[in-house]
Amino acid sequence: MEAKSLLREFDNPEFIEADVESLEISKKVDTVIQNPPFGVVKQGMDMVFLRKALSISTTVYSIHKSNPKTQQLIERISKEYGFQYEMLTSRYRMKPYYPWHTKNFHEFQVDVYLFYKNNFSF
């Protein structure tokens, strides 16, 4: 199911599909919700997405493959951009999506982050 079909009542939602490395946005957006690539195929790509999201919004929801080194890096980047965050760890079951996925499914842990400024939290 596409994310667009899940929208109910939002004020002027916009979906941006672009090359994150060359994406230029002239004004801040309210909220970014993203599921970036985990940086397995192209190392560090997840952090490129995270840095871009933190630079254009004051609230970011982001999913990352759970890993202690990644968690430390995310903590550092969050502070660098002046954000606080909360994290929820969960199991995720992924069906094959790319040609190199050979298993019926792959199960692993993910960290779901809420990054925020000011006094916002769950």
Key terms:
122 residues; alpha+beta; Rossmann fold; four-stranded mixed β-sheet; 2 helices; 20% helix
Side by side, the strands of the main sheet go 1-2-4-3
CATH architectural designation:
3-Layer(aba) Sandwich
Strands, total number: 4
The stretches of 5 or more residues where confidence is low (pLDDT under 50) are none
Number of domains: 1
Query: What portion of the residues fall into strands of 2 or more residues?
Result: 25-35%
Q: Helical stretch count?
A: 2
Shape assignment: globular
Amino-to-carboxy terminus distance: 26 Å
The CATH class name reads Alpha Beta
Provide the residue-averaged pLDDT: 85
Task: Estimate the helix proportion, in percent.
Answer: 10-25%
CATH superfamily membership: Vaccinia Virus protein VP39
Summarize the structure in words.
There is one protein chain. This protein is α+β, with helices and mostly antiparallel strands and 122 residues long. The protein has a single domain, classed as Rossmann fold. Helices cover 20% and strands 30% of the residues. It contains two helices and four strands, in the order E-H-E-H-E-E. Strands 1-2-4-3 form a four-stranded mixed beta sheet, with helices on one face. Strand 1, helix 1 and strand 2 form a beta-alpha-beta unit. The model has no long low-confidence stretch (mean pLDDT 85). GO terms for molecular function: methyltransferase activity; nucleic acid binding. This is Methyltransferase.
